[in-house]
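Slide 14.
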Amino acid sequence: MKILHLTAFYEPHLGGVETHLRALNQELLKRGHEVWVLTACHDANLPLQEKKDGIEIIRIETETKYYNKLNHKLIIWRQVAKQAQLLLNADIIHVHDVYWWLIPLLPLFWSKIYVTFHGWEGKYPVPWQYKLARFVWSKLAMKTIHVGDYIREFYWDQPNAVVYGGVRISKKIIPKQKIKKLQIVFVGRLELENDLKKYLILAKKLKKHRLVDITWVGDGDYKNDCQKYGTVTGMIENTTSVLAKADLVWSASYLSILEAQALGKIVCAFYSHPLKQRYLEIYPGSKLMLIESNVERLSRQILGLLDNSKTLKKYSTHAYNWAMEQTWEKVADTYEKLWGIK
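Slide 15: predicted structure.
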């Protein structure tokens, strides 16, 4: 089947949606599907059309500055309209968050549109406008997927399927018997919404008790603050080699958590409001993590775990075994079942 994905960004742009879609597409290719991606051209040096790793990528030109939101939408709609034939030829049109791209052409192919909602917009409480938009998009789609079962609790739409992402099979890293210098890796945007203030306070507390080396994988407003407590790498495409060296991983995004657990790592995460709490606690592998809202409590949990090598090894083994069951093959199965081709 010819499957067309619509997404705001695609590789080489870095992000969770991009990683999800790239891995999914590789699985779909293995199953004999023809896969296309329609996305924005985020870099003027990229070609507007290319075939990469078997995927046909079409990039639409967008202006980098917008006078207003309506102008932005009009530019996108004009560019998408130019790809009407591509949309008509597709057997499946799967939209990743950006359903509004299709509004002007909706009557032409509404019966083959599916949607994945990948997360939340970073505002809590969730504004009613966001809830209404998703509800409408879900009603205008054949079926929907939520990345995380927490979404249905904070929005108005109900999904047909729920996924959390997947991992590639990897070799488990055995925890050190005795940790002389604690190696910590943080993965995520260095922004307030990711509880950076709490992680920075935690870093300061841990350094009072142990030798600690922290690598901050990400970028954002708190970059300079993070540099006081370690090294900031910026966004990197392949985090596996960095995570492999860690004793602990700090992260609050499903794909990063899964990747860390697939290496047998213990993941720690903060939350500051009910949505983020449910995001973390409803994740099926959450019992193998340290999840907290209070810095002092998480600090004590970390130090206690590090002082008990047997418990640390047990956590590590269970985390690895859980993550190894979460494959991209299973994610692809979910998409095919949603489309009615499995």
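Speaker note: The longest strand covers residues 34-40.
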